[in-house]
Design a protein that fits this description.
Catalyzes the reduction of the glycolytic intermediate dihydroxyacetone phosphate (DHAP) to sn-glycerol 3-phosphate (G3P), the key precursor for phospholipid synthesis. The protein contains 15 helices and eight strands. By secondary structure, it is α/β, with parallel strands linked by helices. It binds nicotinamide-adenine-dinucleotide and SN-glycerol-3-phosphate.
Length: about 325
């Protein structure tokens, strides 16, 4: 039986471990806290993240990353984006040679403005041909209920992406193959920022016209940025693009949308951060995505306004005026 290491036992790491086990794999799940690893092994559950989920027997947990990765034929990473580099450096060279290294993360590193695959290549000293990015409309709370969903498995290596797709294909989880790592990652990270904007609008009492306008224009600026960075424009019309954007912006399960909603309701940033127990990647990545756009000379007005609310003291009400009063332009420009 194939042995997979999943590093990160939060909401998505736990859900993905369950998918790989359902696909026939044996999974070692790495938990940062030893007491969580012990609890998962004793109860076959991780109720802090997924109350009601019984993990398959072929999922076991450990707090020792070397034990998790020993003999693994695939290493899957699901830690918060901003902690990836420090984790890779702390783990050291424990990944088995030549196996695919998979990123489930949807963020861009602060300060370096690097995508997660770039951080893995650099800090983990991993050949980019071994790196695979998995992204799509995959709210973990629905996946653990085994509700049908599709996903993109992207890598420059046809062999690596085929191996990863095989390892996570189940009757309820359908992988599609992709070659566009840049587009898949930019789409996954930027949709979190657009979902923050949609949440703010909902929090202010706005309805579906506003949501649809933000989703559509959010997709336009995501595609503009991604294309400028070398992505295939078609990626933004696929599962990692419009698919994930719609799922995240529409769902009350989204942490990013929920975070934006609280701000739209008038909660302060500090209050909202204190009330958020899981990672809402867009809160930090809005800064690095904006920096990437500025470096590339690309206009990203929704990202820019979200960043201004979070870090420049702009009010959510002012965002409406700021976005609605922009100079008129061709929709397709
Ligand atoms: N939850 C989803 O529906 C979903 C779906 C697709 C992709 N993702 C992406 O997966 C990634 C992980 O998200 P998640 O939903 O599992 O988040 P989460 O907040 O549920 O879990 C994060 C896990 O990382 C641990 N952690 C926190 N700080 C850490 C650190 N400094 N070092 C190592 N571990 C740390 C936490 O204890 C927790 O186990 C994110 O990039 C997210 O965008 C999430
Ligand atoms: O809960 P969010 O906002 O981090 O979104 C989760 C997933 O990325 C949806 O595909």
């Amino acid at each position: 039986m194939a042995r997979t290491a999943v590093l990160g036992s939060g909401s998505w790491g736990t859900a993905f471990a369950s998918i790989v086990a359902d696909a026939g794999g044996e999974v070692r799940l790495w938990a940062r806290r030893p007491e969580l690893a012990e609890r998962i092994n004793a109860t076959h559950a991780n109720p802090d993240y997924h109350p009601g989920l019984r993990l398959p027997d072929s999922v076991t947990a450990t707090a020792d990353v070397a034990e998790a990765t020993d003999g693994a034929d695939m290493v899957i990473i699901a830690v918060p984006s901003q902690s990836l580099r420090e984790n890779l450096l702390a783990w050291g060279p424990v990944f088995p040679d030549d196996v695919p290294v998979v990123s489930l993360m949807k963020g861009v590193e602060l300060d370096t403005n690097k995508r997660m695959s770039q951080v893995i290549a650099e800090a983990g000293d991993i050949d980019p041909a071994r790196i695979v990015v998995v992204s799509g409309p995959n709210l973990a709370g629905e996946i653990v209920e085994r509700q049908p969903a599709a996903v993109v498995v992207a890598s420059s290596s046809p062999r690596a992406r085929a191996r990863v797709a095989e390892a996570c294909a189940t009757p309820y989880f359908r992988p599609y193959l992709g070659a566009d790592v840049v587009g898949t990652e930019i789409a996954g990270a930027t949709k979190n920022v657009i979902a923050l904007a949609v949440g703010m609008a909902h929090g202010m009492g706005m309805g579906d016209n506003t949501t649809a306008s933000l989703i559509t224009r959010g997709l336009a600026e995501t595609a503009r940025l991604g294309t400028a960075l070398g992505a295939d424009p078609q990626t933004f019309l696929g599962l990692a693009g419009v698919g994930d954007l719609v799922a995240t912006c529409a769902s009350p399960l989204s942490r990013n949308r929920t975070f934006g909603y609280a701000l739209g309701q008038g909660k302060s940033l500090a209050e909202t951060i204190a009330a958020t127990k899981q990672v809402a990647e867009g809160v930090k990545s809005c800064r690095s995505i904006l920096a990437l756009a500025q470096q590339a000379g690309v206009d990203v007005p929704i990202v820019e306004n979200v960043e201004a609310v979070l870090y420049e003291g702009r009010s959510t009400r002012d965002v409406v005026g700021s976005l609605m009063s922009r100079a008129r332009k061709l929709e397709t420009s």
